[in-house]
Each structure stands twice: as structure tokens, then as C-alpha cells.
Amino acid sequence: MSVLGQVADGAKSILKGLRVTLSYLFRKKVTLQYPEERPKLSERFRGVPALPIDPATGRDRCIACSACARVCPDQVITVTPEVGEDKKRRLADMTLDVAGCIFCGLCVEVCPTGALVLSDEFELAHSSREDLVLGLEKLHEIGGQFPEKTAETEESSGAQGEPQGTTPQAEAAKEPEA
Ligand code: SF4
Ligand code: SF4
Fold this sequence. Notes:
With 178 residues, the protein is of the alpha+beta class. It has 2 domains: 1-30; 49-172, Alpha-Beta Plaits, CATH 3.30.70. The chain is built from 6 helices and 7 strands, in the order αβββαββαββααα. It has a 3-stranded antiparallel β-sheet. Strands 1-6 form a two-stranded antiparallel sheet. A two-stranded antiparallel sheet has the order 2-3.
């Protein structure tokens, strides 16, 4: 191929590449200036499971039944119960190792009181694995950031702070009888 032909070939390749680039200039942008711009998540987005505080009682709705811990396929939830002054069992502590969570939502489905919600939290970058083990305080904090998720759970489960019936998953998660 002559030098002229090679130059023509090169120019053709450049124009072909630029044609693709230019065509994207006029299309709708799909990138965001993250973190300044936040993505719009779908309504059914599955983020970190969290434990919101119920404004009516000032406590979370957990009754420490451990159904969520039993149903979790990755066994990343621990529930520590205690007995309150009213002799009712309640939650003393909970941890969730989000490093192992697959966001399946089973823990939320089996929760008989609507205490757990799948939040919109997805920013999970940490410098150590230990930081990914979320304690009760952090679960409350994340739960408080997404009040609309709590409202959805209330609507779908009819939860009012006491157990409101069961689901097939809740039945499956019940402690086996001795
Ligand atoms: S979303 Fe699934 S994997 Fe994550 S804690 Fe709940 S049950 Fe376990
Ligand atoms: S299933 Fe719900 S009520 Fe039972 S321990 Fe888990 S969060 Fe608490």
C-alpha cells in the first residue's frame, strides 16, 4: 500500500472512532458525578438490612425471636435476647456481618414484627473486615436513614410492634421442637 493509501486508511480509522464518540455526545448520560450526584435506586432495591427505631415506642420492634438468625443462609446474624422489667423478652444486642450478606431479604420476610427492613444503604467500603460487622447501634442508625422503607414494611406486614401472624418462611424458621 502506498504512503497515501496508509494516510487515507489512518484518517478513515480516526473518523470511524470519532463518529462513535460524537454519537454518544447527544445521547442521555448514564454516568453520574458520584458521590456528589447520587443514583436513583429502584423502589425494591435491596441494601443493608437495618433495624429502625419505632417513633411510637422509642425502641426497635425486635422481640429477639431469632427467626432472622435461623433463616439466614449465610448465618451472619446474631441475636442476644434479654428479659425486660415487664418480663417480656426483648433485644439486648444484634450483630450483622454484612461481608457475608447476600441481600436475599429472607431475614426481613420472616421477621414477625416488621422490625427488620432492607435499607437503601450500599456504600460498604471499609478498610477492615471487622468494620463490616454492624452492631445494634449501627443497625439502628442505618434504619433511621430510610424512614420510607419502614413505612413500606408497616404497610406490607401490618406490624404494630407485636407479632402479626406468620409467613411460610417464618414457620420454616421456627425453633425445632425438642
Ligand atoms: S439479607 Fe439474607 S444473607 Fe443478608 S442477613 Fe438477611 S437473610 Fe442473611
Ligand atoms: S426476626 Fe425480627 S423480631 Fe425476630 S430477632 Fe430477627 S429482627 Fe428481631
